[in-house]
Amino acid sequence: MLVVGIDLGYGFSKAKSQSKIVQFPSLVGEAVASHYQVVSNGVGTMFISPEAKAVGGLAVSRSTIQERREDRSWFLSETYHFLLMASLSELFPEVSVGNVQLVTGLPVSYISTDRDRLKRSLLRTFKFHIAGRPSQAFAVQDVIVLPQGYAAFISEVLDPRTGAIVTSDLANAHVGVVDVGCGTVGFLGIREMKDVPSETASFPGGTWRIVSQVRRYLEDKLPGLALGDHEIMGLIAEGRAVSYYGKTVSLKLVINEALDDLAGNIVSRITSLWGSGAQMDRVYLAGGGADLIGPKVESILAESNERLARNIELLNQPQTANVRGYFAYGLRKWRDS
Ligand SMILES: Nc1ncnc2c1ncn2[C@@H]1O[C@H](COP(=O)(O)OP(=O)(O)OP(=O)(O)O)[C@@H](O)[C@H]1O
Ligand SMILES: [Mg+2]
Fold this sequence. Notes:
It is built from 11 helices and 18 strands.
């Protein structure tokens, strides 16, 4: 049986098996002929069946039609299923037939209503063919759905190879987690490994907000630059300038402004949900947006509550924290089965 952690985010898909971790943009696009020549470069996946589609890195700049969903029931969509199949194939490119036990997550605000629907949609056999690989079939036998963000914390507590509890002081602690994703920001209070409902909520509006602000600026100041959302996200994440008719234009100011807005928003949510935060032993920042937004959140918070600001810690490799937590949880749950 293959234990797999899957985190199909609104921006990036992350997946983990015992020996491998993969991540790629959550994009599914039309397959165009030129794709077939770059199949082996590892940045994306080219489906031949159930339909010709380009997934991940291949879809960012080459597909003419891209699909990027942001709605709540996207996990029932074809896009979601293509991202899942691509994840399984990237983890196990040589496997023709496999049985899978899968751990994944949902934003905390949706989990109680959507958990069973998500489980039902995943408990089936996924059959597909990707260029350069054998035809593959993965039968999903078992599914666990955890709250996003909770798993990021779990990744700090459980051993990634065995699922055993390795940091027992943390397992007994009262912590807060802020999971900054592209589409969602999750806030979780966790005490002795259980979530504290009154300290837990998730809100739409993660780092895509920064992309929208930068996009509006580009449309206004540099018309004619046709950049996709993931390309703009790349510019922001790497702090790169853009080239416009041969001139280099810095985006620092507009990015800074957008980061300030999002960080301010996160700080007001922290304060309204957790008050002074004095009850928490530590507050972790997780999710791929944590690197970008962390320093701003700390400095804005320091103006009103310096002690809480000092109690904030950025998780290691924050973008894959959830998926590493899903995988370790699966190991713990199924290690004897
Ligand atoms: N190579 C990269 N290119 C662009 N952004 C990156 C890259 N690596 C990390 N990031 C950062 O990761 C963030 C996305 O975080 P994450 O993958 O946690 O979101 P998500 O899980 O897809 O979203 P959600 O949780 O809302 O569904 C981006 O906003 C960006 O700041
Ligand atoms: Mg996420």
